Amino acid sequence: MSVAIRGAPWPFPVLETLHIVGLLLVFGTVLIVDLRLLGAVLRREPGWQVSGDLMRWAWPGFGVQILTGPLLFIANSRKFYDSPFFRSKLVLLVLAIAFHFIVVRRVSASVDAGVSPPRARLAGGVSLALWAAVIVSGLSIELF
User: Fold this and answer.
1) Of 137, 132, 121, 135, which is closest to residue 36 (Cα–Cα)?
2) Taking 70 as the threshold, does the pLDDT of residue 44 lie above it?
3) Across residues 65-93, what is the average pLDDT?
4) Rounded distance, CA 70 to CA 91, Å?
5) Looking at residues 7-31, what average pLDDT do you find?
6) Are 117 and 111 spatial neighbours (Cβ–Cβ below 8 Å)?
7) Backbone angles phi, psi at 43, to 5 degrees
8) Could you give the 3-state DSSP secondary structure of residue 114?
9) In this structure, what are the phi and psi dihedrals at residue 2, rounded to the nearest 5 degrees?
10) In this predicted structure, what is the pLDDT of residue 115?
11) Cβ–Cβ < 8 Å for 107, 119
């Protein structure tokens, strides 16, 4: 299967493009939720409403990434396996997802319209840092 993905001119670029589109859906929605928790955007909206309205867009993005990620790995398994950036990306991804479901969702549910409390700002900042680290690790796989 790896030869089929790498051997033809179009499968790998298409998979990589779809993976990036999935990432944009996930990170774009998470970014807005985190910025709301930080109090930087949508201050008139309660955190639970922002999170509820936007996170439904993240699920299709996760689905696309779950489908394309393993296929991209299969296409270049040796490169990914040998890369410390790939391993760090996986660890950071698990941490970012766990942090979102354990902390961000709970904190978002308690943030009313107006100024974000310190715990919400902390949760938004940590979440944003984790997701940024996932993206930087993923990009570093290709660069190094």
Assistant:
1) 121
2) yes
3) 90
4) 16
5) 88
6) yes
7) -65, -25
8) coil
9) -65, -35
10) 79
11) yes
Is 38:125 a contact under the CB 8 Å cutoff? yes
> Which residue's entry shows tokens 């998979």?
15
Other beta carbons less than 10 A from residue 47's beta carbon: 26
| 127 token code pair | 């979440």
Percent of the residues in the chain that have a pLDDT greater than 70, as a whole number? 94
| SS3 state of residue 86 | helix
The two tokens of residue 63 are 């689905």
**For residue 72, pLDDT beyond 90:** no
Nearest in space to 93 (alpha carbons), one of 120, 127, 51: 127
Kindly report, residue by residue over 83-135, the tens digit of the pLDDT.
999 999 999 999 999 999 899 988 988 888 787 889 999 999 999 999 999 99
How far apart, in Å, do the first and last CA atoms of the chain sit? 25
What contacts 59, CB < 8 A, 6 or more positions away?
none
Q: What does the alpha-carbon distance between residue 6 and residue 13 come to, in Å, rounded to a whole number?
A: 9
Give me 88's structure tokens.
């760090």
Cα 144 off chain centre by: 21
